[in-house]
Amino acid sequence: MTSEATEDMWLFGYGSLIWKPPPHFDLRVPGYVEGYVRRFWQASEDHRGTPEAPGRVVTLIDRSHWNTLTDQHSDAPLQTWGAAYRIPGPHVAEVREYLDIREINGYSIQYTPFHVAKEFAASHNLPAPIDCLVYVGLPDNPQFMGPQDLETLAEHIVKSRGPSGENKDYLYGLDQALMELGEGSEDEHVHDLARRCREIESRSSKDAGKAADSSVIGSELKRVGSTAEQEEIEK
Ligand code: BEZ
Known about the structure:
By secondary structure, this protein is of the alpha+beta class. It has helices at 63-66, 92-103, 118-121, 150-159, 167-179, 188-234; strands at residues 9-13, 27-34, 36-44, 55-62, 79-87, 108-116, 130-136, 161-162, 165-166.
């Protein structure tokens, strides 16, 4: 075993890793990175969709690249919140292998400074900032979708599912996990998409309710009709 293999590794999660931790971490730290913008611009063929019908998950876009794009969510916070995990040295190889299998669909590895949330830093003695490994879906990966129309994206998320479950549950889980990280950790892009998806779901359950009501009314009418018919025959 090399000496590198026994060094601890820090991993930054900005998507499902926030609420679905890797195996073998000994510390989870809330905080943020800078210089990126989180967007639901990565197609998911292996977790929240399938190769035939890919879902949508988040990636990080380098802010200098994002500035050249036209995005309907034209504001983005300077800080991208998430959670950093400290992986003890003896488990690094296993966790890397687990993550490569679990997450690598189009993502590349980068390293970025991570800033500990101030409420957490006050009670823990940690380096500042912490150099973290992060998986980023770069613009040249085949799953990178680029800017999306928000309502179309929300509709797509509502109808997608894959081996890890419903795409909308990934979005709702991320929205909830982000709100719990610290002061200012909410992400408007994620929150607005979650709001749109809930509206789409509630519209479609109202439509389904109306369709069910009209079929009940239809069958009542049919029954009334058939009783009348019967009375006619009996007379
Ligand atoms: C995450 O932060 O949850 C994550 C995002 C993309 C690839 C791997 C992990």
